[in-house]
C-alpha cells in the first residue's frame, strides 16, 4: 500500500527527507511546507537539491496542506528553540486526523517522566480523537540510543550499565542557533547557555535514559543526574555555524545519568568538539570524525561503535540523512500503529524495505 505524505520543512534534514520519500515506491509526496517566503512556489526537487523536478510546489499554507488529507506528515522543522509552539503544531496535526513522524521536539521521543503527565495525556487524546499517531525519533535522540542499545541488551545475561555515546566533531554542522545559542560555542565560559541550564539536559536527553530504563523494566531514582564540562578554544576557530574566539567555549562533554539506589545504570554521554585536536584525553571515534557508541557493562561485556559518513565523507551530512531516513522509513509502521503517542518500544522492526539500488545492467 502506498501512503500520501507531506514534508514539513526543507532545511538540513527536510531536504534529505524529500529525497528519501522520492526513493520509496510506497510513498507519494503530495505537499511541502516551507517557512521561508522565498521558497514558496519552488519545486520540491529543487529544494531537495535533486537533478529533476518532482511536480510538487512548496507552500506556507498549513490549511491547504491539511486539506490534502495526507496519510502522514514528515515533520523536520526546527524545534529546539520553539519547543512548546512545536508541540502545539504536532497536536493540531493529530486533531486533523493526520499521522506524524517528527524529528522533534526530542523530549517527545519518550516523554513519560520528562514532561507533565497532562501534556502526554493531551497528545494521546488528540491522537485517539483524530485516529492518528505521533512518533518522534531520528538518530539521537533516536535509533542510536533507543533501538540499537535495547537490541544489544537482548544478548545480555546480566546488565550493570548501559552507556550511549555521541562522539562528534561539529565543525561542519550547520545549525547556527543550535551551535551558538543552545550549546554556547563561541560564548564565554562564565555564560551558561540554554542547554546547560539546570534541568534542560534532562528534558533534551532524559527521554533516552527513561526509555532504555523502561525497556529494561527498572525504576530510576529521581531526579536524573547531569554532569557538564566545557573547554575553551586555545586559538581562534571558524566553523561553518559560527566564529569561536580563543578563550570561549569550543568543546563540551555532558552526561545524563539514570541511577538506581545511587548506582549509574543508564547513561547518555555526549562529547562534542569543534576541532579534532581538542581534548585528546576524551574518548574519540575509532575511525572517522564522529560515531555513536554503545557500551554495556555486565555479562558479557559488549561494545558497538556505529560510524556513518556521506558519500562526500562528511559525517554531519550523513547525520542529517540518517535522521531523515529513520523518520521516512517509519511512516508505514506509524500510520498502521494504534492512534496516540508511539515510541520505539511500540513499533515493529523498521527496515529500508524497497531501497536497494537496482544492479547495473551489463552491456558486455
Automatic annotation (TrEMBL):
SUPFAM superfamilies cross-referenced by the UniProt entry: NAD(P)-binding Rossmann-fold domains (SSF51735)
An example Gene Ontology molecular-function term: kinase activity
Domain Dihydrodipicolinate reductase N-terminal: 10-74
Keyword Oxidoreductase tagged: yes
Keywords: Kinase, NADP, Oxidoreductase, Transferase
Pfam family of the protein (one): DAP_DH_C
Keyword check for Magnesium: no
Biological process terms in GO annotation: lysine biosynthetic process via diaminopimelate
Domain called 2,4-diaminopentanoate dehydrogenase C-terminal: residue spans: 145-351
InterPro entries per the UniProt record, alphabetical: DAP_DH_C, DapB_N, NAD(P)-bd_dom_sf
Protein name from the UniProt record: Diacylglycerol kinase
Taxon lineage: Bacteria, Bacillati, Actinomycetota, Actinomycetes, Mycobacteriales
Amino acid at each position: 500500500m502506498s501512503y500520501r505524505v507531506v514534508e514539513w520543512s526543507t532545511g538540513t534534514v527536510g531536504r534529505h527527507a524529500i529525497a528519501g520519500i522520492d526513493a520509496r515506491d510506497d510513498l507519494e509526496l503530495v505537499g511541502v511546507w516551507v517557512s521561508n517566503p522565498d521558497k514558496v512556489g519552488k519545486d520540491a526537487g529543487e529544494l531537495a537539491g535533486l537533478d529533476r523536478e518532482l511536480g510538487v510546489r512548496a507552500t506556507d499554507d498549513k490549511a491547504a496542506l491539511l486539506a490534502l488529507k495526507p496519510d502522514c506528515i514528515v515533520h523536520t522543522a526546527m524545534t529546539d528553540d520553539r519547543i512548546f509552539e512545536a508541540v502545539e503544531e504536532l497536536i493540531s496535526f493529530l486533531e486533523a486526523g493526520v499521522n506524524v513522524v517528527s524529528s522533534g521536539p526530542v523530549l517527545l521521543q519518550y516523554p513519560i517522566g520528562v514532561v507533565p503527565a497532562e501534556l502526554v495525556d493531551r497528545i494521546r487524546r488528540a491522537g485517539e480523537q483524530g485516529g492518528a499517531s505521533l512518533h518522534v525519533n531520528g538518530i539521537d535522540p533516536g535509533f542510536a540510543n533507543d533501538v540499537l542499545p535495547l537490541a544489544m541488551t537482548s544478548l545480555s545475561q546480566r546488565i550493570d550499565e548501559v552507556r550511549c555515546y555521541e562522539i562528534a566533531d561539529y565543525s561542519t554542522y550547520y545549525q547556527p542557533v543550535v551551535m551558538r545559542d543552545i550549546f554556547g560555542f563561541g560564548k564565554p565560559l562564565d555564560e551558561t547557555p540554554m542547554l546547560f541550564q539546570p534541568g534542560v539536559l534532562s528534558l533534551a536527553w532524559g527521554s533516552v535514559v527513561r526509555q532504555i530504563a523502561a525497556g529494561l523494566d527498572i525504576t530510576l531514582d529521581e531526579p536524573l543526574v547531569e554532569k557538564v564540562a566545557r573547554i575553551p578554544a586555545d586559538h581562534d576557530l571558524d566553523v561553518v555555524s559560527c566564529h569561536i574566539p580563543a578563550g570561549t567555549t569550543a568543546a563540551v562533554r555532558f552526561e545524563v545519568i539514570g541511577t538506581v539506589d545511587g548506582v549509574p545504570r543508564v547513561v547518555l554521554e555526549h562529547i562534542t568538539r569543534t576541532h579534532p585536536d581538542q581534548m585528546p584525553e576524551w574518548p574519540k571515534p575509532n575511525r572517522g570524525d564522529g560515531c555513536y557508541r554503545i557500551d554495556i557493562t555486565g555479562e558479557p561485556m559488549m561494545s558497538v561503535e556505529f560510524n556513518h559518513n556521506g558519500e562526500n565523507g562528511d559525517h554531519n551530512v550523513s547525520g542529517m540523512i540518517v535522521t531523515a531516513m529513520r523518520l521516512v522509513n517509519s511512516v508505514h509502521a506509524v500510520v498502521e500503529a494504534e492512534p496516540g503517542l508511539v515510541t520505539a518500544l511500540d513499533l515493529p522492526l523498521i527496515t529500508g524495505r524497497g531501497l536497494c539500488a537496482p544492479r547495473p545492467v551489463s552491456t558486455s
